[in-house]
Design goal:
- Helices cover about 40% and strands about 15% of the residues.
- By secondary structure, the protein is an alpha+beta fold.
- It folds into two domains: about 150 residues, 3-Layer(aba) Sandwich (D-Maltodextrin-Binding Protein, domain 2), CATH 3.40.190; about 220 residues, Periplasmic binding protein-like II (D-Maltodextrin-Binding Protein, domain 2).
- Helix 3 links the parallel strand 3 and strand 4.
- The two termini are about 20 Å apart.
């Protein structure tokens, strides 16, 4: 993936004039039943196709927007008569759930792969999309997952993550006597972030907060912000040093930089490090939404969680992004982590009519007024297709922040290299190791050693 091109996506989308042809109107079919809970996650009603025009089963990756996808499926069925089911895998269980679902009589017709590593695992089930209309409208075709001349994964969103902060709390801190910085503009490296965070933690009573950072969540399946997103930074810089985009063995040469920010989160939080094993991402986002903390690491997708918290006190205009500084040389020019791990693919083993129905849904999703409204305003996606005009960008504060950072030519973005991580097993093991360290049961060097060994062994298994 080429991040220079990614940075221009919003502007390119705004200038493009192409429009996908919408789906033709279909006869009325079976209505969707209300969404219900399933053991694996969340699903909508079971589809039943009686007219031979196909049906859709989408296995969703993101639990935080599960309800929106179910609602969207119901809208699509209402407009077209094509039955559509949505199931959402529980956090951290997507690969496991997908393995179970593809073995069923009615498998997912539309699912996600997380880049080239995911494609290796699911190549048998990935249809070539090179001749599809949706691929034709992808602005930067280098973003797609390819194999030879074939296209097997199409990215559907550009996202960014960093440290989300409450500007009202920060302004309150800057007004205190002896503050370690006068404004957010001065926080452009790890040393300054550390000085400010530790001073804020010491003066949390004056600021009316429980801690600077939200809980470092490590409940089962809730550690992806650390074993994947935070780990992306040292891997990015190691890949950059070596001029590669993957490695069979990782040096983890910037492990101390990872430790810098990880320790800062743990030691200046609203939650004791020994208690993080019971905390979820939802807990962390609620702490931020309720004004109990000033900062939380997450991505622009987290806005829906913040906005949906009952009793939310943080104002929309005060929700901003800060890059994740770790102490790297020249990091004052570092921006957000921007990229995607979300690639749509069509199940090549599904019935032909169901494959076509799923492709028609993607066409509708990124071209129709209803579909684009959901993409932009409900899901908050920055879509990488030329069917979106300047006024069809997400309006939520975090999406605007991603766009602002992408458009800043003085900053470089951190690409999403975690799509090259060896496996979910590697990430789970690394997360477990980090939890032991956080709770005081493991030395940092042991974490480093285990991470390197796990990477190498899991990479070997993919050969």
């Amino acid at each position: 993936m080429k991040l220079r091109k990614l940075a221009a996506l919003s502007l390119a989308a705004a200038m493009a004039a192409g429009t996908l042809a919408g789906c033709s109107s279909k006869p009325s079919g079976t209505a969707q039943s209300p969404a219900g809970e399933a053991s694996e996650g969340t699903r909508s009603g079971e589809p039943v196709s009686a007219d031979g025009k196909g049906q859709i089963y989408y296995l969703n990756f993101k639990p935080e927007v599960a309800d929106v996808w179910v609602e969207l499926a119901e809208k699509y069925t209402a407009e077209t008569g094509i039955p559509m089911k949505v199931q959402t895998a529980a956090a951290g269980t997507y690969e496991q759930t997908l393995k179970s679902e593809v073995a069923k009589k009615e498998p997912p017709t539309l699912f996600q792969i997380n880049g080239p590593i995911g494609y290796k695992s699911w190549a048998k089930y990935c249809r070539d999309l090179s001749d599809t209309e949706i691929y034709g409208h992808l602005i930067d075709k280098t973003m797609a997952v390819t194999d030879g001349d074939g296209v097997y994964g199409i990215p559907y969103v550009v996202e960014g993550y960093g440290i989300i902060y409450n500007d009202a709390i920060m302004r309150k801190y800057f007004a205190l006597d002896g503050a370690k910085a006068a404004s957010m503009d001065e926080i452009n490296d790890f040393d300054t972030l550390k000085a400010v965070s530790e001073d804020m933690q010491a003066r949390k009573a004056d600021l009316g907060i429980d801690g600077v950072f939200a809980s470092t969540s490590f409940a089962p399946g809730e550690d992806w912000r650390w074993q994947t997103h935070l780990a992306n930074l040292p891997v990015y810089y190691e890949y950059k040093d070596d001029g590669v985009n993957d490695k069979d063995a990782i040096d983890f040469r910037y492990s101390d930089n990872f430790k810098n920010i990880f320790d800062l989160y743990l030691n200046n939080s609203c939650t004791d490090p020994k208690m993080v094993g019971a905390k979820t991402v939802e807990d962390s986002m609620a702490e931020f939404a309720l004004g109990k903390v000033a900062m939380v690491q997450n991505g622009n997708w987290g806005w829906s969680q913040v906005a949906g918290v009952e009793g939310n006190t943080v104002k929309e205009e005060d929700v901003k992004f800060l890059p994740i500084y770790t102490g790297m040389a020249g990091e004052e020019k570092q921006g957000l982590c921007i990229g995607t791990e979300n690639f749509f693919t069509i199940n090549s083993q599904a019935k032909a009519e169901d494959q076509q129905a799923s492709l028609d849904f993607l066409t509708w999703l990124f071209s129709s007024e209803t579909g684009k409204d959901y993409i932009t305003n409900r899901l908050g996606f920055i879509a990488p297709f030329d069917t979106f005009t300047a006024d069809e960008k997400p309006s939520d504060p975090l999406a605007k922040e991603v766009d602002r950072y992408m458009s800043n030519g003085n900053l470089y973005s951190i690409s999403w290299n975690f799509t090259s991580f060896p496996s979910q097993t590697f990430k789970d093991d690394f997360g477990a190791s980090l939890l032991q360290y956080a709770q005081g049961g493991k030395e940092w060097q042991a974490v480093v050693d285990d991470m390197k060994a796990g990477w190498e062994s899991e990479k070997a298994m993919t050969k």
